[in-house]
Amino acid sequence: MDTITLWQLAALAAASLLVGFSKTAVSGSNTISLAVFAAVLPARESTGVLLPILIAGDILAVLVYRRHAHWPTLLRLFPTVAAGVVAGTVFMMWADDSVMSTSIGFILLLMTGVTLRRRRTEARADGSEDARTAVPGAGAEPPAGAAPAGPVRSGAKRFRARSYGTLGGFTTMVANAGGPVMSLYLLSAGFCKLGFLGTSAWFFLIVNTAKVPFSVGLGLIDTRSLLLDAALVLFVIPGAWLGRACVGRIDQKLFERIVIGATVVGGLQLLLN
Fold it and tell me: Which residues contact 8 (CB under 8 A, 6 or more apart)?
């Protein structure tokens, strides 16, 4: 890792602040932080520096939203996520920076397109029925930890969880880019804000912590990277506080649009890199 200039350090600090904000407000937006780290540092080294910062953000998010997690969804995801992490580790043994960025950017944009198409199809199918059966308070936030509702068949639900879980594990191992994939999965499953944030917080705290031995084994985390982390992690805290203050002011539709928009931006950045 070469010497970092003051301007580069400022960019990394701003990206770390955005990590804190994304963990407590808009999950998919941390792809912008990923792009900043990859622009300032070599792509492979940037993943090792970013991982402890993400874990710090995950801890703060769990402290805030721990009661809103939906554990059946998490347990359904973890086996395939583990397979994706192993596949990502193997991939990183031979892929260079260009291949990594292009592959992940393509996956994010593909999953965004699939999710948008599914949501439009479901909206057209349910629109008339919803209009006839709507009741006051139907748009309210569900109870903490409540399962998302919807007439989704169990077979389709399992296939979707396996697909997103494998892709999420792969992308989070290769470039810490699992956030957008899992954001799309939770949105497609019908989670509202608090359930989304609580489930996402626990998911990434567990997954990112499990990734540490793999990253150390690949040489992505070492003494130099941890020294840089010690300076940057301080910026995660005000970012998390800002996100917690803002999340209550973002309505559900805007929340979903921001998540999808951030995913598209992050995917394009990775693809163009």
Answer: 40
The amino acid present at 46, given as its one-letter code, is S
Q: Which residues, 6+ apart, have CB-to-CB distance to 111 below 8 Å?
A: 164, 167, 180, 181, 184, 263
Give how far Cα 235 sits from Cα of 3, 38, 88, 140, Å: 20, 18, 29, 33
Supply 130's token pair.
């919803």
Tens digits of pLDDT across the chain (273 residues) = 668 899 999 999 999 999 999 899 877 677 778 878 988 888 788 899 999 999 999 999 999 999 999 999 999 999 999 999 999 999 988 887 778 778 877 877 877 787 777 677 767 766 644 544 433 333 334 444 445 544 445 667 778 888 889 988 998 898 888 887 888 888 878 888 889 999 999 999 999 999 999 999 989 999 999 999 999 999 999 999 999 998 878 776 777 777 778 778 877 877 876
* Residue 240 burial class via C-beta count within 10 angstroms: exposed 0-12, middle 13-18, buried 19 and up: buried
**Cβ-based neighbour number of residue 226 at 10 Å:** 13
| Residue 104 structure tokens | 């992940």
Q: What DSSP character marks residue 66?
A: G
First to last CA, the chain: 19
- Give the Cα separation of 162 and 236 in Å (integer): 31
Tokens coding 194: 């608090």
Tokens of 35: 């792009």
With contact defined as beta carbons under 8 Å apart, do 23 and 61 qualify? yes
